[in-house]
Amino acid sequence: MSAQPGFLRHVIDCNRADPADYVAFTIAGAAVGRVRRELARRLAGFADLFAVTPDAVALQPGFDDFAARSHALDQALDRLIAGGLVPKRRKELYPVAARFADPPLARLDRGAVASFGVRAYGVHVNGFVRRPDGLHLWIGLRARDKLVAPGKLDNLVAGGQPIGLGLTENLIKECAEEADLPEAEARRAHGAGAISYAMAVPEGLRADTLFVYDLELAPGFVPRNTDGELERFDLMPVAEVAERVRATDDFKFNVNLVIIDFLIRHGVIAPDHPEYLDLVSGLHRDHPAFWR
Amino acid sequence: MSAQPGFLRHVIDCNRADPADYVAFTIAGAAVGRVRRELARRLAGFADLFAVTPDAVALQPGFDDFAARSHALDQALDRLIAGGLVPKRRKELYPVAARFADPPLARLDRGAVASFGVRAYGVHVNGFVRRPDGLHLWIGLRARDKLVAPGKLDNLVAGGQPIGLGLTENLIKECAEEADLPEAEARRAHGAGAISYAMAVPEGLRADTLFVYDLELAPGFVPRNTDGELERFDLMPVAEVAERVRATDDFKFNVNLVIIDFLIRHGVIAPDHPEYLDLVSGLHRDHPAFWR
Predict the structure, then answer these.
(1) Smallest CA–CA separation between A276 and chain B, in Å?
(2) Low pLDDT (below 50) residues in chain B
(3) DSSP letter string, chain A
C-alpha cells in the first residue's frame, strides 16, 4: 500500500501505467486497446493474425467481420496460452470496441482482455441502509480462493459486463448470484455514474469502467451470497467504511474507488476535503482514452 | 444552440476553447490562469507589472507577497478598464491560486477573472422534493436585468465563491439571499461532487469549477428570492427538467451541466444512455488543468 493514509492514493494506484510501455491495438482502424511492447514483439511472430509496426498492433484487415475477428483473436489466445503468456481462459466473453456504446467489433475471452488492453466494463452496487444512527453500507468479504483480491472487502454486488447482456439484465443476474436479491429488489437500484481507470498489470493493461449503482435496502434485509464468491456480508456504519478506505488496504483495489465515489455523492467526503477536486476528476478519467 | 437535441452538446458548448489561442499566466512560477494572445501583447506594454514572453505572461517577481501581487493586479485592472478591455469591476474578490486547496497567491476582482483565465469556483444547490408522483426540482427564473444569462432558468441557489469565505459559509449566505432558506435548512444540503469546464469568452477564458450540493426540501416549502437575482421559482417534475435540458437552451449554459450531473447521480439519465460515459467524463474534466 501507499505509505500515507488518504483517499487519493487509491486513485493513483489504479492509474499507474506508463503510456510509453504500450502500443495501440487496432481493429479496422479503430483503437480498441493497448498492448505492452514486449507482447507486441511476440505478436509480430503471428503474422497471419497481426500486422505489427513500432506504433501499433493491428488485427490483419482480412478478418473483416465480427465472427472472423473473434475467431482470429481466439486463435491468438490459443498461442498465448500455449506460450505461457496467458494463464487460461476465463470462459466469459467480453466485447471489443472503441467505445461502450459502439457495436462490438469482436469478442474476446476475459482472460485475454488485459493482454490486449481492451477496456472492460462492470457493474458495482452500493447497497446501503438509512438507519436512525446514520448511513450504513453492506460490505462483502471476498472468498479466500478468488483469483483476484482474495479475502478483500467488496461491494454488495459487483460483476463484469459480458457481451450480449444489457446492463440492467447483468445487474439483475449479479444481484441474484451475489446477494440473493430478487429481481424486483435489483430493479430498485439506480445508476449513479461511472468510474474509470487504467493500470499496468503483469499481462498488460487493466482498463476498466465500472457503472456504479446505489440500492437503498430495508433495515431488515440481509443479503446472502449464492455463488461462493463472497464469504459473508457485514453492515458497516459509513464512517467505518470511510476510515477503512482512507487508512487501510482492506478493500479490493477498485472497490476503494467505487466507495470514494459513493462517499463524495452522499456528502461523507465533504467539498472542503483537500483531495476533493483531485478525487472527482481522478475517478472520472477520460473515456475511452486510456491516458490524456 | 447546437443543432441537435441532446445532453452532451451542453458539455461541448461549455468546453469550447482553443488552447493555441492562449498563453499561461503565472505568479511566482505557478500557472494560475490563461491569457488570450492579443491581451498578452497588450500586457507586454505594462512592463512594470508583467514579464511577457511568447509562451507566458508572468507577474513581475518583485511583487513577492499576497498584498503586493493583489495590488499589482488591481493596477493592471485599472489600465484594462481605462483601455476598454474590461467593462468594470464586479466588486467581488476572487482567489488566485494554482489549485483550490492552495493558499491564494493574490486576489482579483471578479470582473477580471476571465481576462486572466483564472479558475473561478462556485456553489450550486439542486433543491429537490420527493413526491408520490416522483422527484421534482425547484427551478429559478433569472431576472431580466442580470448581466449573464438574463431570463434563463437556474438552480435553486447558485453563487460564486469569493476569497476568504468557506464553502459552507458561502452556501449558507447564498441560500439566504437567493431562496430565503434559514441556516438550519441550508446546512441540510450535502456536497455531491463538482463539475468543471473552460470556455472561450470575449474577455478571455471562463474556467469554472462548481461544487454541487443536493438539498431535499419538504413538500410544503416554497423558496422566495430576496436579492432580486431571480424573478420566481417553479417546482418542476424531473422528467420536464430533463427534457428542457435535452431539447432547449432554456437553462443558463452552466446550469445544464449541474442538472445533467444531478440526473446521472439520481438515475434519471440511465447508464445505457448512449452519451452516458462521455457525459460522466466530460463533466469532470481535469482540475486544475484547463485542457488535457
Answers:
(1) 8
(2) 1, 287-292
(3) --SS--SHHHHHHTT---GGGEEEEEETTEEEEEEEHHHHHHHTT-TTTEEE-SSEEEE-TT--SHHHHHHHHHHHHHHHHHTTSS----S-EEEE-SSTTSPPSEEEEHHHHTTTT--EEEEEEEEEEEETTEEEEEEEEE-TT-SSSTT-EE-SEEEE--TT--HHHHHHHHHHHHH---HHHHTT-EEEEEEEEEEEETTEEEEEEEEEEEEE--TT-----SSSSEEEEEEEEHHHHHHHHHH---B-HHHHHHHHHHHHHTTSS-TTSTTHHHHHHHTB--SS-S--
Nearest-Cα residue of chain A relative to residue B171: A271
Q: Name the pLDDT band for A291 (thresholds 50, 70, 90).
A: very low
Chain B interface includes A209 (CB < 8 A): yes
Cβ-defined contact of A264 to B100 (cutoff 8 Å): no
Residue A99 and residue B288: Cβ atoms within 8 Å?
no
Gap between the Cα atoms of B139 and B156, Å rounded: 6
- Within an 8 Å CB–CB cutoff, is residue A285 touching chain B? yes
Q: Among residues of chain B, what percentage have pLDDT more than 70?
A: 97
Q: For testing the chain A interface, which of B284, B285, B290, B291 should be mutated: the one with the most A CBs within 10 Å?
A: B284
Residue type, B4: Q
For range A104-112, the mean pLDDT: 97
**A215 near A188, Cβ under 8 Å?**
yes
